[in-house]
Amino acid sequence: MTITITVEKDGYYEVNGNRQEPTVNLYIIPAASKLHRMLKDTKDLIVCPGVYDGLSARIAMDLGFKGLYMTGAGTTASRLGMADLGLAQLHDMKTNAEMIANLDPFGPPTDCRYGYWLWSSKAHKSQLGPLVVSKSVQEYIQAGVAGFHIEDQIQNKRCGHLAGKKVVSLEEYITRIRAAKMTKDRLHSDIVLIARTDALQQHGYEECIRRLKAARDIGADVGLLEGFTSKEQARQAVQDLAPWPLLLNMVEHGATPLITTKEAEDMGFRIMIFSFASITPAYIGIRSALTRLMTEGVVGIPEGLGPRKIFEVCGLMDAMKIDTEAGGDGFAEGV
Known about the structure:
Catalytic activity: (2S,3R)-3-hydroxybutane-1,2,3-tricarboxylate = pyruvate + succinate
Shape: globular
Helix content: 40-55%
InterPro entries: ICL/PEPM, Isocitrate_lyase_ph_CS, Pyrv/PenolPyrv_kinase-like_dom, Pyrv_kinase-like_dom_sf
Family: Belongs to the isocitrate lyase/PEP mutase superfamily.
Number of strands: 11
Pfam family, one: PEP_mutase
Strand content: 5-15%
Number of helices: 13
Organism: Penicillium cosmopolitanum
């Protein structure tokens, strides 16, 4: 049988003489699936700046980053005004993650294949029994994030780049990973399960590798050894766990020596996050501006950074377009 399709100038087409109106089916690929594709279909290092609120996320998106990382330290500092000592609850983390993940369902226009994704820095606090793990994973899936950490720290956890960390037993850690894997499978989700270990301080490198291999063997998608003490150690971890993808958390002036994105890519890391990429510059900028206000009586905002510029970064033009195209007159006189 021969099928003849003729496309006309007005966009309509004919199939064996029958005129058809073109249809377009729009399907938004979930963030988790985008991340899976990036890990599977490319060999590129995925560089993710740490973001902690809507504005920092909007700025990263505006610059064209393919991935965003919601830092737990930044979320705790911005939402609670507290240090990263395990004080943020599931509600704090999930609410923030959901807001950021849904700022733009399509992601930045610089990469139409994948768009952007966000992953939350941790699934609730670290005293995670199977039921709490399962609840946390389900909440993150519903929030639209692409992935999350499961850690092995004890209840009184702290930032991965502080001293004095303690971890649970390997058996308890694996119970957490297994509960997370079972939940994502039950919900048929592509959400990326990152197995993180903070055991380096307490038990040494070999125990970290043992824990990550165990997590990998029961289905974790990515590994994270937190707090490398040397570049050689970071490079060795990639080799010891290859071809399993590893994530590098680069905290400048933290426990790990400075590793550039080029060095990380050469080592073989697949994802690199910069947890303090937004929160530390924000601290510097805010403190400087407020100090000037106190001493000079003005903030000293640079020319061109008035309210409209900030609002444009935060979606002003999209909002105007929606209102105008729907027949509204909210912006008839401009802004």
